[in-house]
Design goal:
The chain is α+β, with helices and mostly antiparallel strands and 282 residues long. It is 23% helix and 29% strand. It is built from 4 helices and 18 strands. A 4-stranded mixed beta sheet has the order 9-10-12-11, with helices on one face. The chain has a 4-stranded mixed beta sheet with strand order 13-14-18-15, with helices on one face. Helix 1 runs parallel beside helix 4 and helix 2 runs parallel beside helix 3.
Length: 282
């Protein structure tokens, strides 16, 4: 015996992705009901897709994960889609430095840095390339004295730009963890975009300078970035004898851990990754 369910035209074209209501029949064989199910996706203009824009960044547009209920009652979710990217832009001017930073967390690894400190520019290139962030940094400062103020203010501005780009941090992974080797060097970085600034730093850089760059400034760079971004950051050296390798592996591991932490977790469906329901700088 056959029971007709609903009568609508059925399109069997293999090239179409548009959903159609179909002619569904339920076959009764003795006491067994065998339903024929068809999965479908809603058109892009479906009214239940939600657009949210953060005031921190007018160029950020996120389509929140839509919950689709199938005929068995289970939800399907879509990942957030960013239009234009999550962008932070900062200009910091003091009597010692003039720094401009623009960072796009949803970029493609574009690096454009000119700080007057060649080794720092090289490290910022690692941040962009391995984090897949677009990083634009322009800085002038009193490097005729030393690199300290410029190194510090660039890091402070990058941390502030990260804070802006992250916005309310809805839907992100929040945590990042990565170990990066570079020849004999091996560095482990673990971080939490918690809103609570903390740096735990354990590098043993064997020389005082790499080129003209004072290696003491590596710790100061990350401490300054942590202070303004509200990040918990742990850096551990597992191996390494070459100063350049140790520092570069540190920036590479940091970039990959930050990329992991800022990427979206589709299972969260746009919720804030905290049991408190909020992640703030204070």
């Amino acid at each position: 015996m056959e029971l007709p369910a609903c009568h609508h035209p059925l399109n069997f074209s293999s090239t179409t992705t548009t959903s159609h209501l179909v002619n569904t029949r339920v076959t009764i064989s003795q006491t067994t009901l065998i339903p024929i199910r068809f999965h479908h996706q809603p058109p892009s203009s479906a009214p239940h897709l939600r657009h949210s824009f953060t005031p921190m960044d007018v160029q950020r547009a996120t389509i929140a994960g839509a919950s689709l209920v199938e005929d068995n009652g289970s939800p399907e979710t879509s990942s957030p889609i960013n239009i234009g990217g999550r962008i932070g832009e900062v200009k910091r001017v003091t009597k010692e430095t003039n720094v401009s930073v623009r960072i796009n967390l949803d970029g493609s690894g574009v690096a454009d840095s000119s700080t007057g400190i060649p080794f720092l520019d090289h490290m910022l290139d690692q941040l962009a390339s391995h984090g897949l962030f677009d990083v634009h940094v322009k800085a002038t400062g009193d490097i005729h004295i030393d690199d300290h103020h410029t190194n510090e203010d660039v890091a402070l501005a990058i941390g502030t730009a990260l804070l802006q780009a992250l916005g309310d941090r809805k839907g992100i992974n929040r945590f990042g963890d990565f170990s990066a080797p570079l020849d004999e060097a091996l560095i482990h970085v673990s971080l939490d975009l918690s809103g609570r600034p903390h740096l735990s730093y354990d590098l043993c850089i064997p020389t005082e300078r790499v080129g003209t760059y004072d290696t003491q400034l590596v710790e100061h760079f990350f401490q300054s970035l942590v202070n303004t971004s509200g990040m918990t950051l742990h850096i551990r050296q597992l191996a390494g004898k070459n100063s350049h390798h140790v520092i570069e592996a540190t920036f590479k591991a940091f970039a990959r851990a930050l990329r992991q932490a800022t990427e979206y977790d589709p299972r969260r469906r746009g919720s804030i990754p905290s049991s408190k329901g909020v992640l703030s700088r204070t």
